[in-house]
Amino acid sequence: MVTHTSDLHYAPTLSDAVDWSPYLAGAGIGVLSWIVFAAVDQPIGITTALSQLAAGAAIPIFGSDSVSANSYWAKNPFVLDYGVIFLAGTLLGALASALLSRRFHIETVPSVWREHFGPSVAKRLTAAFLGGILTMFGARLAGGCTSGHGISGGLQLALSSWVFLAVMFPVGIATAHLTFRRRA
Amino acid sequence: MFIIMVGLTFAAFGLLFGFAFGWLLHRGKVTDYNVIIDQFLLRDFTVLKVMLTAIIIGGIGVLALHQSGWANYHIKDANLLAVVLGASIFGVGMVIYGYCPGTGLAAIGTGSIHALVGALGMITGGILYALSFDWMQAHVLTVWRFGKVRLPDLTGIPDLVWFIGLTATAIAFFVFIERHAVPSHLRRSSR
């Protein structure tokens, strides 16, 4: 289907031994979707379960009474169900893959960030925290993230999910080109 | 007893399927901050390759499962003002965070400290959304509401035609990308 002419120009490295073709990884996620749809009758998704964890984190802050009185958390209560365990599985699966491929490494400031914003750890962690807030808020408002909308909704040809993809990618591309224009 | 068994089976499935998902995200390199940012800077198309392939392969299989009665659809509500606003906030947030929720959680497993801090941000964002939910429901979530609609229902174009079109578009796009895009490891700006 796809030519790999560019691969002829460099010597094999560790990347070639460990990294799968992105098409193979994508096909794997597609096949995993078949199994998940058939076995547990729900699509792959992240942020519904993440908002259940947010409910758990809110209990010590606001008290369990106000959390259960909240209309959103009444629908997404703090329970350790399939979706929450799926999140733990996702983290563990990547951990296992990273350890077995000897790719596990502690990273605080990634290279592309450093090229543009410098080596400050505090700066990167602040951005990650604020970006995390926006990412989750946006995902919940839209009704899903790159997994729930992008992949699971996209593969079901859902109108909402294709609108999500058609808005999210151009906004992300514009944001990246504006923020990563300068160099450190 | 039966309920406990079902619960345990679901828990085991959650761990197994999540594990496979995290493994695939890492092997596909999308747990790498640089790969995700380079996608939005249009310097590396790994993210789109993974996503479009997953959508096409997954979609054709789920369509077959659905038509033979093995799977149900789970369509999200097309309340389009919320989707457009949410997707915009998400697009900005994902570039600042450097991960989406799934790849962020997976990246924690690969040793990314900033992914972990961003996950705490996501928990905070989840709390903020729950607190603003009543206002959103009153003002945003009910605007431009088309319901749980699928593109084949909306357009009258059959599922299979959508997937043939999507596959043809994706192949043309990928062939173009593989011919013209410079692989990230050959770029001057190193990682």
Automatic annotation (TrEMBL), chain A:
Subcellular location(s) of the protein: Cell inner membrane
Transmembrane segment boundaries: 20-37, 44-62, 82-100, 121-139, 159-180
Gene Ontology, cellular component aspect: plasma membrane
Its membrane topology: Multi-pass membrane protein
Keyword Transmembrane: yes
Primary residence: membrane
Pfam families in alphabetical order: Sulf_transp
UniProt keyword terms in alphabetical order: Cell inner membrane, Cell membrane, Membrane, Transmembrane, Transmembrane helix, Transport
InterPro entries, per the entry: Sulf_transp_TsuA/YedE
Family membership noted in the UniProt record: Belongs to the TsuA/YedE (TC 9.B.102) family.
Protein name: Uncharacterized protein
Organism: Bosea psychrotolerans
UniProtKB/TrEMBL annotation, chain B:
Record InterPro entries: Sulf_transp_TsuA/YedE
Membrane-spanning segments: 6-25, 46-66, 78-100, 112-131, 160-177
Assigned keywords, A-Z: Membrane, Transmembrane, Transmembrane helix
Pfam families on file: Sulf_transp
Stated name of the protein: Uncharacterized protein
Organism from which the protein derives: Bosea psychrotolerans
